[in-house]
Design goal:
Low-confidence stretches: 1-23
Order of helices and strands: HEHEHEHEHE
Distance between the termini: 63 Å
Radius of gyration: 19 Å
Number of helices: 5
């Protein structure tokens, strides 16, 4: 009976490492692209992502998607499965949620990349800025938001956004 020499012994370690490297390459590229966009726009946080870029990071688990919209928006307009909801402002309130950072900290460690999503990219910009000031090392804004900007008729959904991009979402 022949034995396999140590040089030819099957090993899953190199295969696992190459798979990890393959998965990390697109992740690293997207994080670098977000950072580059952030520098170009002089953003006060790590960077900004298109909805498709955010979906790629969310789908691989490389970053946590945090939906900062209100509960009615989340429930009736739709949401991204697997996203976390941490309201920037409660429905009907004018002031930001005083527990926003506390709640975010309970759900996402400060060393885990976070992507903030709102209706059009405005509240999520503020949320990414506050997260950065509060110690998140990689906080990003999802440009265009879930519904995009208003069109000429004053409606959302035809000018950018997560849903317009055809990315996965669900509705209650």
């Amino acid at each position: 009976m022949s034995q396999t020499s140590p040089q030819h012994a099957p090993s899953s370690a190199p295969q696992a490492s190459s798979r990890e490297a393959d998965a990390a390459a697109p992740t690293d590229a997207l994080l670098a692209l977000a950072a580059e966009r952030g520098r170009a726009k002089n953003l006060p946080y790590h960077g900004a992502l298109t909805p498709a870029e955010a979906w790629a990071l969310h789908a691989t688990g490389a970053a946590r998607l945090v939906d900062v919209r209100t509960e009615p928006e989340w429930t009736y307009v739709g949401r991204v499965e697997g996203s976390l909801r941490v309201e920037w402002r409660a429905h009907g309130e004018q002031q930001p949620n005083p527990r926003f950072i506390e709640t975010l900290g309970e759900r996402v460690p400060r060393d885990v990349p976070v992507m903030m999503l709102c209706r059009s990219g405005v509240r999520s910009h503020a949320a990414a800025e506050l997260a950065t000031r509060s110690g998140w090392t990689v906080a990003m804004n999802v440009l265009e938001g879930f519904e995009g900007d208003l069109d000429e008729a004053g409606q959302r959904g035809s000018r950018g956004g997560w849903r317009k991009a055809g990315l996965p979402w669900v509705q209650s």
